[in-house]
Design a protein that fits this description.
By secondary structure, the chain is of the alpha+beta class. It has 14 helices and 12 strands. The protein has a 5-stranded mixed β-sheet with strand order 5-6-1-7-8. Helix 3 runs antiparallel to helix 4 and helix 12 packs antiparallel against helix 13. Its EC number is 2.7.7.7.
Length: about 425
């Protein structure tokens, strides 16, 4: 699946660059000794598998509970890691910045995926895809796959094929050629198409649609009426008609949630308040990052729900703020005061959640003339707070009720070093 493919005049060309087993690949960047060792990455509190290197996939299922697979990991020499989100975020930024420097326009789709436009680019696009792949690997240590096609959905399918047939494709597949596109469509199950989930797969099978080619040949209008306009666009895109353009920026979220399991069960209100204050701080950071204001907060706490020997309790409360705000001080105070309304003694709590609701951009709230608004001084304080934390690290400035190293923090006993964010954990190279 290589070689020169001529561009059809007037048709757009998209590329999807997707990092291979991203979390596991990040762990290998600063551990070259693990280059040939299978790796799994665990979720919060080291509870279950959320990422696997390619060589670990035959032995460990996604979502497998860690406590159940410890013997399997030892048997096959698989190394587990706790989630190191600061490392993954830093390496993702490096990868995305490097890709952006090589193309005219792009869209960051997720932490490990970026769509690019190659429309009008001269030369061999397959070779350009290999150039992207080689440059990213050289400068970041992260392996990527590249899929190229006339639509975003086909580019996603091309990327899947590049990984599926890594040895034959070299990690790059160009489906601008109709013959190659049809081969991939015929040899790809419909459930592998972007946006076709488990429930939709069942509907497709009931209609006799089993491959991506079957879906590409289906009537888009009929499927759109029966299911959704999203599916109609998917069908058209598989057939080669571009319906999805690059997004200049991700739309602002309508709700922002910060929720974590505690590292241990909590049975006292002060520690739960600390956790809620910490989550409120993180949620307000996300709120200000998208330049939004919040009018309502929902705070909830719950016990573990699966241990038959533990008493169970779950409750939440909705708090109306006095005015639309992004001020972490007001949000934190409202969230922690809500804990007093929720907390019940005699239970061992396992999780808390802070949900920011009724989000708007400044100027979109239509209150009466005399309604209270956020003071200008609060805007200035939040700007300075974010600038300091951006320069010196998250949590450098924080509410007094937010501890630096809480006892209840999630367990990450297998976490790698913070090679990119902490001076005391920089990579050390010893000369012989």
């Amino acid at each position: 699946m290589s070689g020169k493919t001529p561009q059809a005049a007037g048709l757009p060309v998209f590329a999807l660059v997707d990092c291979n087993s991203f979390y596991a690949s990040c762990e290998r960047v600063f551990r070259p000794d693990l280059a040939s060792t299978p790796i799994v990455v665990l979720s919060n509190n080291d509870s279950c598998v959320i990422a696997r290197s390619y060589d670990a996939k035959p032995y460990v299922k996604m979502g497998a509970p860690y406590f159940q697979i410890k013997d399997t990991l030892r048997r096959y020499g698989i190394v587990p890691f706790s989630s190191n989100y600061s490392l993954y975020g830093q390496l993702s930024e490096r990868v995305m910045t490097l890709i952006e420097s090589m193309v005219c326009d792009s869209e960051t789709y997720s932490i490990d995926e970026k769509f690019c436009t190659l429309t009008g680019m001269p030369g061999n696009l397959t070779e350009f895809g290999r150039e992207i792949r080689a440059k990213v690997l050289k400068h970041t240590g992260i392996p990527v796959g590249v899929g190229i096609a006339h639509t975003k959905t086909l580019a996603k399918l091309a990327n899947y094929t590049a990984k599926r047939f890594q040895a034959q494709t070299g990690g790059v597949v160009n489906l601008c050629d109709a013959f190659k596109r049809d081969w991939v469509l015929r040899n790809t199950a419909v459930e592998e198409v972007w946006g076709i989930g488990r429930r939709m797969t069942a509907h497709m099978h009931a209609l006799g649609i089993h491959s991506a080619m079957d879906l590409a040949k289906a009537d888009p209008v009929l499927l759109g009426r029966k299911f959704s306009v999203v599916l109609e666009k998917t069908v058209r895109e598989l057939a080669g008609t571009s319906c999805l353009a690059l997004e200049d920026a991700a739309p602002a979220k309508q709700e922002i949630c910060c929720s974590r399991m505690f590292g241990k069960r909590l049975d006292n209100a002060p520690q739960i308040k600390e956790a809620v204050a910490t989550y409120a701080q993180r949620a307000s950071e996300k709120l200000r990052a998208q330049h939004s204001l919040c009018k309502k907060i929902r705070v909830s706490i719950r016990t573990g729900m699966f241990n038959p020997d533990e008493a169970k309790y779950v409750n939440g409360v909705l708090v109306e703020l006095p005015y639309p705000t992004n001020d972490v001080r007001l949000i934190t105070r409202a969230a922690t005061e809500a804990v007093d309304r929720l907390y019940r003694p005699g239970f061992r709590y396992s999780k808390a959640e802070v949900l920011l609701m009724d989000l708007r951009q400044p100027g979109e709230f239509t209150d009466d003339l005399f309604a209270q608004t956020q003071p200008v001084t609060a805007d200035r304080v939040m700007t300075v707070l974010d600038q300091i934390n951006a320069r010196w690290g998250r949590g450098t400035l924080r509410a007094a009720c937010v501890p630096a190293n809480p006892e209840w923090a999630m367990r990450r006993e297998l976490m790698s070093q913070s090679y990119t964010t902490r001076l005391d954990q920089l990579w050390k190279v010893k000369a012989n």
